[in-house]
Amino acid sequence: MLEAKEGKPYGIHHSSPVPPGRGDHPRTLRWYDEIGLLKPSRVGENGYRYYGPAEVDRLQDILFYRALGVGLAQIRACLDDPAFDRLAALRRHLAALEGERDRLENLIRSVQDTIDAMERKEPMEDERKFAALKRQTVAWQEATYGQEARSRWGDQAVDRAQGAVLSLTRDQYNQWTQLGREIQEKLEAAVTAGTSPLGEAGQDVTALHRRWLAFSGTPYEGEKHRGLAALYTEDPRFTAYYDRAVPGCARFLREAVEHWAR
Fold this sequence. Notes:
Helix content is about 70%, strand content about 5%. It is mainly alpha-helical. Helix 2 (about 55-65) crosses helix 3 (about 70-80). It is built from ten helices and four strands; from the N terminus they run ββαββααααααααα. Strands 2-1-4-3 form a four-stranded antiparallel beta sheet.
């Protein structure tokens, strides 16, 4: 049982440990209670909030999602969904953490290579820098979306897409990243202006999105394109990515693709 009171220390008894972090501070627990994200199993006469095993499990899930940068409203919607599968979610978290580990290892290797080159007073080859950048990009994608993508389309399809990114030339990579920025800018402009995704703006962003996906080496048209876009509102990680500056971009993109993808 976990017990907490604002301004007082708290402890965990007869329960699995809760990962340390900002989310387990008593004031944070009080805020989670107020917004309906995490309710205590009971509140004692002394003001202490008591959290049983089910509540501690939910807190653990909240902390995992927070570590991935997901907003509180999206976390609540996800955890309150009757179809929420905690085991599947934990597997996704594990895959994300493993992907983040790979990304950090690649980053560490790149920094070490740079240090070694500087100590030897040798310029680091641009191609080595570019190769490291692509590895970091693939590692981030695997950490963020890999588990869901592999469960939907299989390891072979995901591995092929990652291989396509790793094989991009510098010019192709620049086109790909610039296209991604253009899509985001158009989404934010359309949502801010209150434009309908069923109009010309939606058709334009759908075409750009299809071109951006084509760099993965796998064609995304018709049903497959619509299926991918559905994830943008079903999975909080996708939603958080597209809604990072302007909320509603993920839904706009999904509705545009559902209408215009053929």
